[in-house]
Amino acid sequence: MSTGTQINCSLQPGITKNATVVFEHFQQGS
Fold this sequence. Notes:
The chain is an all-alpha fold. It has one domain. It has two helices and no strands.
């Protein structure tokens, strides 16, 4: 969750949401 929060603050909200979802999806898939 730390990484997601950091990315959220770093990138924009729209891109962040997409990136966070993809990140979580990849982590779950892996």
